[in-house]
Amino acid sequence: MRLIHCACGTDVRLPGAEHHQLPAVPTRKDLRFLDALARECLPVDPTPSLAEIQAQPDVAHLGTPQRAPQEPDERLRVVVSGSDAALGAVLTRMMRADYLWVEVAYIPTDPASPAAVCWGVGGLDGAAFALEAPVVPAACVRNDTGDVVAGSAVIYRGDGLEEFVGEIVVDSQTVLYNERATARFHGQFGARLVPTMDAPGIACVPLTTPISPSGPVSSRSPEQLEWLSGAPALRWLTRGKTAPPAVPDPSRALTGRAVQAGGKSIALLIDATLKPRPATRATFYRHLRDIQAVRNA
Predict the structure, then answer these.
(1) Most buried residue among 118, 122, 154, 269 by CB atoms closer than 10 A?
(2) Is the CB of residue 141 less than 8 Å from the CB of residue 195?
(3) Residues 230-260 as b or e (16 or more Cβ within 10 Å = b)
(4) Would you say 262 and 280 are in contact if contact means Cβ atoms under 8 Å apart?
(5) Which has the closest alpha carbon to 140: 99, 88, 79, 201?
(6) Residues 180-195: pLDDT tens digits?
(7) pLDDT tens-digit readout, 135-159
(8) How far is CA 284 from CA 38, 223, 290, in A?
(9) What is the largest CA-CA distance in the chain?
(10) What is the pTM of this model?
């Protein structure tokens, strides 16, 4: 097996691995060497292409993630040490160039990060696990502009202080619908999604408080703050206060293969990285190929 280490802003060293020192969040140019390595290990891919899979009448991409059908001349394992954004960048490059058959391991700098939790690697001996553990395939979640979600994504409006105006749907079920922004502390401020790793692919939960704190967090509950803000004589009690940011409502969580959002000034935060331009629509969905993840299932 050929071992490649992508050290993304870390000083981690792995015995026996080919070391590549990279920026904290590597760019497409930084990761171009992975394309060449994949071609070396699998010069010709005899398996169906993505277009051919999509054309099949019985596309079986909604079930349990599967082992990649490719059989390279030499197994290739890429170990990423760094942040969720770094892992997402590597997975995005692999997905766009269509070599998700490559094995991927993760050594997180934050053991409590969403991707570390999803992959089950937060409390492990990262180096030993990444080098020795077997592959447990995982669902690959991407958006409509070709970015892979390694750990989590947040859909919200503008700067995150106003309620989301629009609709967010998981498959055919509505997780959020709001026609106008009225709430300040407790309402419908967006949604957070994470890969389920197994079928169906995505879990999505609505967020009931502003995404970005605008002041010190009040000791009062978001519901109390919202009630006080609507009472003219008591509104002064909320002055300069904010609710805990991005509080989820797990009772309204939904799972599915795709999440679609439409609305005003939609902002997307993918693995703690803000997309540069607001949009009126956004879609996240399970990719046709699965990640060959080295994870603790």
Answers:
(1) 118
(2) yes
(3) eeeeeeeebeebbbeebeeeeeebbbbbbbb
(4) yes
(5) 201
(6) 999 999 999 999 999 9
(7) 999 999 999 999 999 999 999 999 9
(8) 26, 30, 15
(9) 74
(10) 0.94
